[in-house]
Design a protein that fits this description.
34% of the residues lie in helices and 19% in strands. Helix 1 crosses helix 13, helix 3 crosses helix 6 and helix 10 crosses helix 11. The longest helix is centred in the N-terminal third of the chain and has 17 residues. It is globular, with a radius of gyration of 20 Å. The model has no long low-confidence stretch (mean pLDDT 97).
Length: 403
Amino acid sequence: MRRVVVTGMGCVSALGLSATATWQAMAEGRAGIGPLSGLSGHELRTSVAAQLRGYEPLAYFDEKRLVLLDPVSQYALIAAREAVGQAGIDFAGAAGDEVAVIIGTGIGGASTQDGMARRLYGEGNPRVHPMAIVRVMPNAPAAQLSLEFGLRGPAFAVASACASSNHALAQALMLLKSGGAEVALAGGAEACITVGTVKAWEAMRVLADDTCRPFSKGRRGLVLGEGAGVFVLETLEHAQARGATILAELAGAGMTADAADIVMPDASGAARAMRAALAQAGLATDEIGYINAHGTGTPANDATETRAIKAVFGEHARQLAVSSTKSMHGHALGAGGAIELVAVIGALRDGVLPPTINHLGADPECDLDVVPNVARERTVGAALSNSFAFGGLNAVLALRRWG
C-alpha cells in the first residue's frame, strides 16, 4: 500500500481567514469565540459563537458566482485555493483526471435552507430561487471544487455529523493508497450558524452560555463554530516526482461505530477507532506525543474521551499531551476535524502544542495533560486527531512528522 503525504493546507475559521492565520492564533492561544452576531430579532438564548470575522464574500467571488454558492461552498473554495497554492500543483490537462475531491459536511447549505424556509413559511412567498438545490445540496462544496480546478477523478461528499471531515480525509487516504487516484483535495466545510440550526442545538441543551472549556471543571457545553479546512493529499511517489514540499505524512485512519446510542458517546467505540488508526499507520502507542482531542466541552464527551484515551494508551497516557482547539475555534461540526488538522500539522512541523484555553482547573474525570491555557514547545514525531460524532460515528487520523 502506498504512502500518502500532505503537501498543501488551507483554512478559514473564527481564528482567521487562512491556515497561516488560524495556526498562528492556535499557537498563541487566542480565542475566536465572541458575541453571536447577525441573527438579531430572534428569540435566541445563545449569546456566543465562533464566527468568521471580517469575511467579505465579494473579496473572493464575483456577484455572478455568488448566486451559485451557499457560504458552505464559499468557505470550502477559499480553503482549497490556499491549499492548492501552497502545494504549487498544476491540474491542467490530463492531470485533472487523477485527482479526487472528497469534502465532508454535517449540514450542507444551511443558510440557503434557512432562507428558503423563511420565505415559504414565514412570509408566505411561494417563489424559490432556481439555484436553491445546487446551493443547499451537501455535495455542493465537492462539486464546486471539482469545477473550479477542473478535477475529473472521484468527487463526492461525506456526511457523518461531527466526524465528516475526518471521514472524508480517511476516504481520500484509502483511495490514494489503493491506486484509485494520485492526488486528492479533501477536508470539510460548515456554515451552520443560522437561526434554525442554533435553535435546534439550543433544544438539545448542550450549548455553553459563556465559552468552551474542554476537560475543565465548570465546563458548560459546546460553542458552535464555522469554517472550512481543505488539504492537498498526494501519494509519496507523486509528491517526490514533482519536488513538492511535504508538510506531514497522513499515515493511517481508524473508523468505527458505537452501535450504542444516537447521542451519548461510548468509550469503547472511540478506543477502537484510535487503535485502528495506530494499526494502519504502523505506530506504537508510545510513539504518539500529541492528540488533538474531539474535546467538545460537554460533561459527557470529555469524560468519555478521557476514558477512551487511557484505555488505548495505558501508562503512556500520563506522558501524552492532549488538547482541544475547539476552546479557540468552536465546534465547526462537519468542518471540525479539518480545522483541527491544521493544529496537528502545525504541532508536528513547528514543535508547538496548541493549548486548551479557558481552562479553570482539572476535572477528576478528565485527568490528562490537556496543555491548559498556554501553548507548549515540544517536538513530537506522531500525533492523532480525534473526531466523534452523534450517531456514535468515530473517525481518527494518525500523522507522522516529516523530515
